[in-house]
Amino acid sequence: MSSIVHSFQWLCLFFLFTLICVSSLNVPRFENFHRRKHHQHQTISSSQFSQNLETFYYMQRLDHFNYRLDSYTTFPQRYIINFKHWGEAKSNAPIFAFFGAEEPMPEDPYVGLLEDNAPKLNALVVYIEHRYYGKSTPFGSFEESMKNATTRGYFNSAQAIADYADVLIHIKKTLSAQHSPIIVFGGSYGGMLASWFRLKYPHIALGALASSAPILYFDGIAPQHGYYYVVTKDFKDTSESCYNTIRESWNVIDRVAKEPNGLSILSKRFKTCKKLSTSSNLKDYLVLIYIGVAQYNDPYENTLKVVCDAIDGAANKTDVLGQIFEGLLAFDLEKLPCYEMEGSEEPSEKPSETYIGWEWQKCSEMLMPIGIDKEDSLFQPNPFNMTDFIDECKKRYGVVPQPHWVTTYYGGPDLKLNLKRFASNIIFSNGLMDPYSSGGVLNSISNSIIALTTKNGSHCLDLRPNDPSDPHWLTTQRKKEVKIIKGWIDKYHADLHKN
Q1: Of the residues 188, 279, 448, 458, which is catalytic?
Q2: 459 catalytic residue (yes or no)
Q3: pLDDT tens-digit series, residues 65-93
Q4: Less Cβ around it within 10 Å: N or C end of the chain?
């Protein structure tokens, strides 16, 4: 697998739902689940790119906000640097820092927006792994870090961005780059971290680009049904007949499930690897497919249209269930012999660090109340239930979620009004086909807190590498981002020269 594809899968791990209807904990997590191969014309190999990278470890403090003896415990935090295009400290060349999110960082990270523009701006590119993921785990291993309430207690966003501050200060000191301006980048959860970092550490980061960062999806600021409303709109705008078929399919599945041997019939029709124990598992699986198609719709292949064309194209050949299965086949380019909808019992299929880590983060502070409460939705109603969510978190972890903490610590319902008065140099980029844009900043707040949106854009699309076949609107979006960032850097250098 090429460096670019590997890293894009890491980059766009963000913000994909786990199965929706299984439990009250199944609200958004940030993971790229699907198997489709992303369109790539780049031919760079891992070995070609990796030779430009150097891996380092910073002995990070366990707790930045306490002075107990155990707070001074350290753990190795991994960061990776590409020095190839840096103009070095003597020219005060900039530093681009990409914030890792809720997954292990690959050995050869490659975020296109940074790497494509580093040569133009003579930038150093830094990738920093999020604490508790990959090789940046306290207590020796991920399993030990997540073992109990005490070890998990240091796992939160405030500690994470404090980590990033320490690492960046260390890098500047080590490289004697005191006057090299830092621009921070992130996508999805990482995008939230980037924007919050600029707010909390403006003396370290000159500016931030937050791609597909739904910072308004907390504490009831964004509507709970917004995510599913955008998915619904995406399908309806693509094909109203496809939208109607999917809407009808839920009742058809429920009706067949109630028939004698109904679950066996559904298992056969959808080629499940094991007999379905409930029709909900099938519906959850399909919901996961549809929201993934909407969230990560590929502008080159237009996956959403491919799926809907398959559903519509089968209308005269088969029934509703057959149409839905044709859509599944169109989505799944690998054409699996069967589809795993009941969960695997194989030891090798244990939950990923992303799954385990994000479940904890949701139950502590990253509580985004997202549900389905619209009658015209593509999906059956499934409103978010805060009481059930809290009960499930207490049962799993013995903690009560803090639904108001993110807005208390980083900013709340008057965020736009407040940011206008004290914040600056943040770009919020969103593709409006991305369901998470419903919780994003879609209108510019000031001359330096700028919202860039694209009508046909999907999740984190602007962070991918440049491609010769990129649509004009995507190329334009990236050019605007780079122009704004260059303006920040130029003004910083001018101010530095005056001093």
Answers
A1: 188
A2: yes
A3: 999 999 999 999 999 999 999 999 999 99
A4: C
